[in-house]
Amino acid sequence: MAVAAPRLAGQDAEYLAHALFMFKAGTRASSIMQPVARTLSDADMQAVAGYFAAQHPPVVAQEQPQGDEARAGAQLAQFGDGTGVAACFSCHAAGGRGNGARFPSIAGQPASFTVARLHEFQARAAQGGAKPGTMTAVAAHLSEAQIVDAAAYLSTLPR
Ligand code: HEC
Q1: How many structural domains are present in the chain?
Q2: In the prediction, which pLDDT does 1 show?
Q3: Rounded to the nearest whole angstrom, what is the distance from the C-alpha of residue 87 to the centroid of ligand 1?
Q4: Which residues are paired to 103 by β-bridges?
């Protein structure tokens, strides 16, 4: 499945600049973003990150997820699963709007982007050494159904 591009508008500027920096350094993989980031200077990265962070367009209508997935995803995002997985919003703030440079907004992203990012974190977790409290550690505990549910729900949220 093709992975949709993430929504950048309204994302935290520092988080975005850091993501570009990681693409350029090769510590975050993407065959699409790495060649782009390599052409950017540090100043370019700050500028482009600031540009997107300042945008507040309305969320475009997304594909409506199936009711059951979105409901299960809402439960997980708000309350966690009661065993290994903490509520997504405990770190990413109410509505998934994000909290500062460390906790990006996860609201309003295409579901395929969220699924792909969570798989990326899981792949990193499988290499071992995920620090507690990081997204890599969170992802290690997610089942495939939880990933699909969370992604479906988050795609419906405004940013
Ligand atoms: C313990 C705190 C914590 C919890 C709980 C948490 N996250 Fe995260 N999450 C993070 C941090 C920190 C990052 C940034 C990591 C990075 O970019 O390397 C992140 C990044 C992400 C990203 C990537 C965003 C982007 O734009 O690239 C997604 C998607 C995500 N989280 C989804 C979730 C979902 C879904 C849940 C609930 C199942 C969740 N998170 C729970 C801390 C948390």
Answers
A1: 2
A2: 56
A3: 11
A4: 99
